[in-house]
Structure formats: C-alpha cells, structure tokens
Design goal:
The protein has 540 residues and is of the alpha/beta class. It contains 18 helices and 22 strands. The protein has a nine-stranded mixed beta sheet with strand order 13-12-14-15-22-21-20-17-18, sandwiched between helices. A seven-stranded parallel beta sheet has the order 5-2-6-1-7-10-11, sandwiched between helices. It has a two-stranded antiparallel ribbon with strand order 3-4. Helix 1 packs across helix 9. The relative contact order is 0.11. It binds glutamine (GLN).
Length: 540
C-alpha cells in the first residue's frame, strides 16, 4: 500500500555551520527508531552541478553515494545516523535544477512559454522534493535546505517550501534552526538574531512550526517562552540544541525535548510509546565509558581543515568506540613531513592513515611517512591516493624502480606503476567523470584483508581516475606486496597488502563512506584492533 508521505523541511538562520545536517539526521534517527520509513535529502543553493569539482577548502569533504554521485558531506551524516543508503536523488543543487529546466526548454517542453524562476525553477524544486515521496515508500521525507535564510540564492527554495506548505497542509512541517549567541562580556544570551531570522522567514511567507535554538549555554525556560511568543511558535515547539561532547548525543537531547513527538503531532501522525534506541544508547555508553586511547596519525594535506576528512574521522571514532577506546586523532601535514622529522611525528602513533587526495602538493611527505611505517611495521591504512602512494613508495624503495610514479604526478614517467585508467583517457570534462560509486571486489582467501571482512566478496565506493598498473603485478607480488583484492570483471587491483608486516593495507576504494554508528566498517575495526594489539608490542 502506498504511504501518505509527510514532508519535514529543515531551514537555518542567523549563521551557517549550526548543524542543520545533524538536526535533520537526528530527526530521522528518532523517526526510524519509532518504526517509520524515512528518507532524507539536501538542497544546496550553489550553482555547481555537484560538489565534486569543489576544493575541500570550500566545502569540506566530498562524499560519494553508492550510485556514484559526488555529494555534500551532510549526506555522510545522514548515512552514519540512519544506515539509509542515499543516491543522487538525495542531493540537489541550484545548478542541477537549472540544468534540468534548461534541458526541458531546449526540448521544447515549455511550449513557447517564457521560462522564469517562478514558476519554472520553483516547480522543478518542488518536483525534486516530491520525487522521493512519490514512490509511496516513505512515511517521512526530510529535506534540508542548505544556506541561511536571507541569502539571495536560497530564495527560490524557500518559495518552493512556501508553496508546498500551503499545498500539503498538515502533511508538512518546517523546522527552523537558529543561533542564540552568548555575549561573554555581558554574561547574556541574546535571542534577537533568532527573532530577526524568523521574521525573515515570515517575510517570504513561511511560518516555522518548530524552532531549534543552537546555543553554547542552556537557555532558561522563560527565554524559550519569550521566543515562542515573538515568533508565533507554540511554547512546546521551541527546543534547544546545547553544545554536547558528541554529535551522536543530539538525537537523545532532541528526544528529551520531545522533538519527535511534536513533529508527529503537528503532522497528525498516530504514534505510541517510545523510540527503540537500545543500540544507539549502547554505542553512546561505550563512547562515554571508553578507557585508554588509540593514537592515530592521519597524514594528509588538508590538516588545518576540520571537515576535509570527515568520514575517515567518524569511521575511526566508531571503530575505537566499539573497542572501548577513545580516539586520539592527530592530523599530520604531509607538506611538512621530511626524513628529518618523520620519526618524531610518527613514533608515538598506534596506527597511521595516509589520506586520499589529488595532485602533487604534499605528496613527497606521504612517501616519507609510508617508508617509515613500512620499515617500522606500523599498522597502516592507505586510502585511494594513500594506497597509490603505498605502491609507489614500495616500487621506489624496495623494487629499486627509482623513478616509479603515478601518471597523475608525472605523465611521462617510464615506471608508471599507477596509471590513468583506459576509460579515462578520452575524458576532458572534470565534473562527475571519475570512476565513481560502488563496485564489486573479490578478496584473496587467507589474506589479512579477507580476514578483516570475514568474507571474500565485497562492494565498496570509489572516486578516482588512476589505478594500479597491472603490467607490474607479478613484479610486486615477487617483491612482497600482494594484490589481494580485484574487480571481478575488469581485474583492476582494488587492495594491496604486505603479508610480511603486521597490518599494512591499501585500498583503492573508500571504506570510510560506508561506516555507520550501528554498523562500523570491518576494515576500520580491524585496523584499530591491530593498532591496539601493537600497543603492547615493541616497535621495530
Ligand atoms: N588522485 C587519485 C586518482 O584520481 C586518487 C583519488 C583519491 O584519493 N580519491 O586516482
């Protein structure tokens, strides 16, 4: 039977980076734990077709969905909180909306009409919002509107929300997330920016149903009542999101304030009892009670940027938590690593990850780190470019191929142990043209990686143009680096490991995209297991 789908919109006011993605994910977690079918989507107001072409400095990590969409990092939060597998239908940008309207115009679909922002762009946005709901599979579609209310570029999205709210009636709620600053010198919390931001929403015709006030200090009840009064929101629907030590506590904090019940009531959805958060609480208990720590060094070039390796950070945290350890993650700048300082930088670590990436900057430091890790038998995981660097470092320093390189760094190298994939050779466009999304991989029996997964056939997500050059495969195997995972159809090498070492594994794919709170990734689990085991063993 087709479900009557309800729509929840999450908007943001005052400033960006308030955690709309976390609030949206928390709402989804609570509704799922009550047995509802839920999906989530993010609308981004920028003109790029997708964030794949964006530098991480602009927008943090680029997340990849199973169907090969380069997506906003909030989709990573959605998956980590909910276990829902997102697709390209779950992340729409202004660029994509315009592209599809312009394509329709060129096809003549508008029958000679003047094509305009209203109604054509807003209709396209509405079509995308309702697309997931139209399957009849979901009780709730949660749509996060990127950007901040008041931005020029968000206006068409808000106009679409206004129209939908009118059309959907009780089947629609708007949750508005704002900021309540604490003025330290005056010792006061200020709600004026929240009032203004709600006014701005009202000006475009949207009355929010629920407010979530982000604050670093708990707001007194009277202050929430004042906000309710000024903003035309019922008193019980003014909730607050106080800074908490872990983002994974947010669903519980919001449940304590009845956010899920309020949404169910406002959408007239029958509900009973409490959400089943047993597994979630089990994870949080472990997170709080973890004793001892695991020190992991993450070698990459975006070390000063919090969100650049978001999925890796979260995967490590999940794996440490399930093994009752606190994660002590150190970012190590590959640009600054040299033979002279590498020992100081890595000696104290229990494990090292060499990060994914593109281009030349900081690459030599990755080789320095990997040589040190290999020679000191440090548990090491190389991801994508990190795996390619493992291959190059091994070729140079063990196999004696001193000029070994990736064709990405030196297109004319004679020893192109990492080379451009054949299907990439004729590609000139940058956007959405890499090898993207989930591909099958067969693991060799008896290997470390196969033991880590506990099975031989896996599927993992990719985002790269270059690959291990199979012409060198035998030479690597003979020299002690084994190609232990390959694509069953194309025979592309997906995993390498050095069997003689304790734990030295490189994956061409990105395991970090599929680790979730309730399903930590087996490879990260095994990596942390090796890191813990190594704490009691003398280093070479
Ligand atoms: N730059 C490398 C490639 O394109 C690796 C990409 C990555 O690390 N995501 O193959």
């Amino acid at each position: 039977m087709k479900k009557e789908t309800k729509y929840i919109f999450v908007t943001g006011g005052v400033v960006s980076s308030l955690g709309k993605g976390i609030i949206s994910s928390s709402i989804a977690r609570l509704l799922l734990s009550r047995g509802f079918e839920v999906t989530m989507q993010k609308f981004d107001p920028y003109i790029n077709i997708d964030p794949g072409t964006l530098n991480p400095y602009e927008h943090g990590e680029c997340y990849v969905t199973v169907d090969g969409h380069e997506a906003d990092l909030d989709l990573g939060h959605y998956e980590r909180f909910t276990n829902i597998k997102t697709t390209r239908a779950n992340n729409i940008t202004t660029g994509r909306v315009y592209q599809s309207v312009i394509d329709k115009e060129r096809r003549g679909d508008y029958l000679g009409k003047t094509v305009q922002i209203i109604p054509h762009i807003t209709d396209e946005i509405k079509r995308c919002v309702k697309h997931l709901g139209s399957t009849g599979n979901y009780d709730f579609v949660i749509t996060e509107i990127g950007g901040t209310v008041g931005d020029i570029e968000s206006l068409p999205f808000l106009e679409a929300v206004r129209q939908l709210k009118w059309e959907l009636g009780k089947n629609c709620v708007v949750v508005h997330l704002t900021y309540v600053p604490y003025i330290r010198a005056a010792g006061e919390l200020k709600t004026k920016p929240t009032q203004h931001s709600v006014k701005q929403l009202q000006q475009v015709g949207i009355q929010p149903d629920v407010l979530v006030l982000r604050t670093e200090k708990e707001l007194p009840k009277a202050m929430c009542l004042k906000v309710a009064q000024f903003c035309n929101v019922s008193a019980d629907a003014v909730t607050q999101s106080v800074d908490v030590p872990s983002i994974y506590e947010v669903p519980l904090m919001m449940h304590r304030q009845r956010l899920d019940q309020i949404i169910l009531d406002k959408t007239q959805t029958p509900w009973a009892g409490e959400p089943d958060l047993k597994k979630w609480n089990h994870f949080l208990d472990k997170l709080k009670n973890a004793t001892g720590e695991v020190k992991i060094g993450l070698v990459g070039k975006y070390v000063e940027l919090q969100d650049a390796y978001k999925s890796i950070d979260e995967s490590l945290l999940q794996a440490c938590t399930y093994q009752d350890r606190k994660l002590n993650l150190k970012y190590i700048s590959s640009e600054r690593l040299t033979d002279a300082n590498v020992d100081d930088a890595l000696r104290e670590m229990d494990g090292v990850i060499v990060a994914p990436g593109f281009g030349q900057r900081g690459i030599e430091g990755k080789y320095v780190a990997l040589r040190w890790c290999r020679e000191h038998d440090m548990p090491t995981l190389g991801i994508c470019l990190g795996m390619q660097c493992m291959v190059i470092e091994f070729a140079r320093n063990v196999m004696g191929l001193h000029d070994a390189n990736s064709a990405e760094m030196d297109p004319h190298t004679t020893n192109n142990v990492i080379d451009l994939m054949d299907e990439q050779k004729s590609i000139t466009n940058m956007g959405g043209t890499m090898r993207l999304g989930a591909y099958a991989c067969h693991l060799r029996e008896g290997t470390k990686v196969a033991r880590a997964y506990g099975r031989l056939d896996i599927e993992e997500r990719h985002r790269h143009r270059f690959e291990f050059n199979n012409a060198y495969r035998d030479e690597f195997e003979k020299a002690g680096m084994a190609c232990v995972g390959e694509n069953p159809e194309t025979h592309l090498v997906e995993v390498v490991e050095i069997p003689a070492l304790r734990w030295y594994i490189g994956t061409q794919y990105h395991p970090e995209y599929s680790s979730t709170v309730l399903n930590p990734h087996p490879l990260f689990m095994d990596f942390i297991r090796a890191a813990i085991a190594g704490q009691n063993q003398p280093q070479k």
